[in-house]
Amino acid sequence: MSQLEIKALHVNLAEREIVKGITLTVKPGEVHAIMGPNGTGKSTLAKAIAGHPDYTITSGEVLLDGRSLLEMEPDERARAGLFLAFQYPNEVPGVTIANFLRAAMQARLAEGEELDATGYYKQLYAKMDSLKIDHKFTSRSVNTGFSGGEKKRCEILQMAMLAPKFALMDETDSGLDIDALRIVSDGVNTLRSSTLGILLITHYQRLLNYIVPDFVHVMYDGRIVRSGDKDLALELEAKGYSWVKKEIVHA
Ligand code: ADP
Ligand code: MG
Questions:
Q1: How crowded is residue 186: how many other Cβ atoms within 10 Å of its Cβ?
Q2: Residues 21, 10: contact at Cβ < 8 Å?
Q3: I need a labelling partner for 129 at 20 to 30 A (CA). Which of 67, 160, 213, 221 fits?
Q4: Confidence tier at 215 by pLDDT (50, 70, 90)
Q5: How far is the CA of 42 from the centre of ligand 1 (A)?
Q6: Does residue 168 have a pLDDT over 80?
Q7: Rounded percentage of the chain residues whose pLDDT exceeds 70
Q8: How far is the CA of 230 from the centre of ligand 1 (A)?
Q9: Where are the alpha helices (DSSP H) in 57-147?
Q10: Which of 30, 38, 57 is nearest to 199 (CA)?
Q11: Atom 20 (ligand 1): residue with closest C-alpha?
């Protein structure tokens, strides 16, 4: 049972509390969306779970399969089955996607174990076919000069190859164009399975027209102020975030 449990998580950035007590459980096979206005702490939540060194967890817990992620180094978190898709992925000039993915997969094997090259390429091309990605793509340098859509394609391919138990995707306000939006949503929908849990962070409702979440949570000022099913995203689109803010002020 690989579920992700976030328990009463509080996160500081430069002495300021940004995440003010988030509790959320994502079970295998579920897609949870977190929505909320800009500056509300969505990316801070993602980076804290990823183990970004600038963010201090002042209290709370994050468990994957009952094991605390917070005591692990970022690479250990990856080995435990966590995958992070970044809002602004890094460029790695001179390293091809094929070699980058191979190194990432090799790094997850036990010491002394060698990744079988033939098997690796077979798997890589099979995944690319299922995601409708041209095989030529693997000879490009990671994210170097990539369009927004190509970065997303690279990210989805990494996710397919690493086959995580849990994926955390921050797609917030990154100005996803329609091409990138399609790639992310087709990719996620292809990879969606009963063994994968997904936490999808987004500012825009329209992504959720393509990836229909099981649960939607609205975050405001560091807290989840409302949870529901996919209809909550539609309600938010119709009424805007000011609707949530007003409710909080009058609560
Ligand atoms: P969201 O992803 O919901 O838009 P963020 O988590 O990026 O929100 O930001 C939450 C708060 O942290 C905001 O008030 C923002 O101004 C602040 N913040 C974000 N990044 C930094 C940074 N690098 N330095 C200082 N403050 C930051
Ligand atoms: Mg953000």
A1: 17
A2: yes
A3: 213
A4: very high
A5: 8
A6: yes
A7: 94
A8: 26
A9: 74-79, 97-107, 117-130
A10: 30
A11: 44
CATH of domain 4-250: 3.40.50.300
Residues 106, 87: Cα–Cα separation, whole Å: 25
Residue 251: pLDDT above 60?
Answer: no
Nearest atom in ligand 1 to the alpha carbon of residue 44 is 6
Ligand 1 atom nearest to 170, measured from its CA: 2
73: exposed, middle or buried (Cβ count in 10 Å: 0-12, 13-18, 19+): exposed
Region 195-215 average pLDDT: 91
Quick check: 207 and 184 in contact, CB under 8 A? yes
Instruction: Give the nearest ligand 1 atom to 219 CA.
Output: 3
Where along the chain do its domains lie?
4-250
Q: Which ligand is nearest to the CA of 35?
A: 1
pLDDT tens digit string along 89-101?
677 788 999 999 9
Question: Which protein residue's CA is at the shortest distance from atom 6 of ligand 1?
Answer: 41
Give per-residue pLDDT as tens, 104-116: 888 888 888 999 9
Separation in Å, CA 56 to CA 70, 167, 192, 221: 10, 21, 31, 17
Find the residues whose C-beta lies inside 6 A of ligand 1: 13-14, 18, 36, 38-44, 172
